[in-house]
Design a protein that fits this description.
By secondary structure, the chain is mostly helical. It has one domain: de novo design (two linked rop proteins) (Up-down Bundle), CATH 1.20.1440. About 80% of the residues lie in helices and about 0% in strands. Helix 1 packs antiparallel against helix 2 and helix 2 runs antiparallel to helix 3. The N and C termini lie far apart (about 90 Å).
Length: about 190
């Protein structure tokens, strides 16, 4: 009887150990999966930052092209470009939205300057740079869509049971999406 009791206790202990090991392995796998998704979100934000940087570079080229036509206006726009915030993988959707508003404001001012100087609008530098701005604007839009797709994967996992338990324990939070607004539903027409 004593041997049977010892064997029973050993079996129960072994089952508990096996369940604990399986649970620990599941937690590790789930944690690593959430880390992977979070890094994909950060990478997607970094891609947006790279496209935005290129877009600002194109705007800087346009500003250089306007200098010979309108020195005061181009100096004002150079200051706007200098004051902008760099978008990195740790930036938020709000940071990107603020950057986009700054870019749109500067770009609108530049277009207003170009309207006053017909020779500027017909210069090859202006035309080529406008094409670049349009291309980068399209790239930013695609990068935002990619970001939203990646955020969907992370947010879905964070909300689903039982992954949500691990997410809550380790402090994973849902990420914010880029929202479509009335002003963003169509591609901007800069020229």
């Amino acid at each position: 009887m004593d041997n049977l009791l010892i064997i029973g206790i050993a079996v129960v202990f072994l089952v508990i150990v096996i369940i604990a090991v399986i649970l620990i392995l599941w937690v590790i796998r789930t944690y690593n999966m959430l880390i992977s998704y979070r890094e994909l979100v950060r990478n997607a934000m970094a891609q947006i930052g790279a496209q935005i940087e290129s877009r600002w570079d194109a705007l800087s080229n346009l500003i250089e092209a306007t200098k010979e036509y309108a020195e005061f206006e181009s100096n004002t726009l150079v200051e706007v470009v200098k004051q902008r915030k760099q978008i990195t993988q740790m930036s938020t959707v709000d940071d990107v939205e603020k950057d986009t508003a700054s870019f749109s404001s500067a770009f609108s001012r530049l277009l207003a300057v170009a309207e006053n100087y017909p020779d500027l609008k017909t210069s090859q530098v202006y035309i080529n740079t406008m094409d670049s701005v349009n291309s980068y604007e399209s790239n930013v839009r695609i990068a935002r869509m990619s970001y939203n797709d990646t955020v969907t994967k992370l947010n879905r996992e964070i909300q689903m049971f039982p992954t949500n338990i691990v997410a809550k324990i380790f402090g994973f939070n849902q990420e914010k999406y880029f929202e479509s607004t009335d002003t963003k539903k169509e591609m901007p027409k800069w020229n």
